[in-house]
Design brief:
- This protein is α+β, with helices and mostly antiparallel strands.
- The protein has 2 domains: 11-161, Four Helix Bundle (Hemerythrin (Met), subunit A), CATH 1.20.120; 185-420, paralog of FGE (formylglycine-generating enzyme) (Alpha-Beta Complex), CATH 3.90.1580.
- 31% of the residues lie in helices and 11% in strands.
- It has 9 helices and 11 strands.
- It has helices at residues 11-29, 49-68, 79-83, 107-128, 134-161, 232-240, 252-261, 298-308, 315-322; strands at residues 185-188, 191-195, 216-220, 223-226, 269-272, 275-280, 283-286, 356-362, 388-391, 408-410, 419-420.
- The strands form 4 sheets. It has a 4-stranded mixed β-sheet with strand order 10-9-8-11. The chain has a 3-stranded antiparallel β-sheet with strand order 5-6-7, with no helix packed on it. Strands 1-4 form a two-stranded antiparallel sheet.
- It is globular, with a radius of gyration of 22 Å.
- The protein starts with 10 loop residues before the first helix and ends in a 5-residue tail after the last strand.
- Mean pLDDT is 94; it is low at 1-8.
Amino acid sequence: MTLSPPADRSATAKLHDQYQAVRSLSETLCQPLAIEDYGIQAMADVSPPKWHLAHTTWFFETFLLLPYLPAYQAFHPTYNYLFNSYYEAVGERHPRPQRGLLSRPTVDQVYQYRAHVDQAMAALLQQQGDQSPVAALTILGLHHEQQHQELLLTDLKYNLAQNPLRPAYRQDLPQAMANPGPLKFVEFSGGLHTIGHQGEGLAADEFSFDNEGPAHQVYLQDFALANRLVTNGEYLAFMEAGGYQTPSYWLAEGWATIQDQGWQAPLYWEQQDGQWWIMTLAGLQPLGIDQPVTHLSYFEADAFAQWYGCRLPTEAEWEVATRDVPPQGNLLAADYLHPQPAAGIEPLEQLYGDTWEWTQSAYLPYPGFRPAAGAVGEYNGKFMCSQMVLRGGSCVTPPGHIRPTYRNFFPPSARWQFSGIRLAT
């Protein structure tokens, strides 16, 4: 769902259209769920669908309705505690690992909460129009909800994969057929380059998160990026060559992690009668050799690159190579909900969508970075430690939510996100 409404409507009407479209998509994504699916939390890093629906609603109630809509009353006095995620300035919160223990509020009550807030937001936007800070905070809240639409699906996939029945989220998902061709490298010139978002980042047509700026110069050596993502077949060759048994390919922490966790393959891979299968949002499927490998940790991506005789790109290299490419590809609206093979027809393919691409860059502030004022300043800046940057979006990233400057970040051991590999030299 993009954030680009028709140009002939007033700014206030456009913003309300955007609000309704994003909020509606979250509920559409939940339509295939059984009622039992809404409350499952299979590990501490994921959240139940019910919590995602409520937390995104809490964001609008907390940061917009309570401070800006006169006489607004919170829907429930305890929801601030239940659905706050990590905003210390807002107050205490229910422990993240225990979100799956909440049988109440019910799913029906969460949808009532969403309807209550949506009605109040319509009134607020009508009163305040497109004036700052209401408009800017609303746009931030919509991009926040788009992040949770992606997380809802990645978390749901993890939850369903823990069930021995290997149930499908949807059984009607399509698959593309293509021959990705051999892995090639596209060269780029080094020198001084400007990276980072150059706008204010608040308007709908130029939105960015605070961690994407300020724009600044970097010096790069000449480099080359692979024309496409690494495939399952190429990663399987790494496994068959003893990749998980050879410590020289691995960073020390990565080697310790795979020993401790017993990893011998990407997340969701399993062997049956000598054949590899993979858990998808369509259930358990035969492994597609030409599909991009996904659900890898940074450690696995880096080890593969070492084995292949290459490296992972820096985030600056990735941005310089892709900043003039339209942010289009196998994103959520394509409705595959799984990485698909490259077509082999473009110099650089799969830059957006399919899988988030690990970079070798630590998630750190850009020169001159300052978190936003107030509680929303906790959104990105306080996580700039022990995380690695990923670029490009995935097959479950909403269109309109990805751009060349977007900086995703996860700990190097994280695997449940749709994360994959683009090589560099």
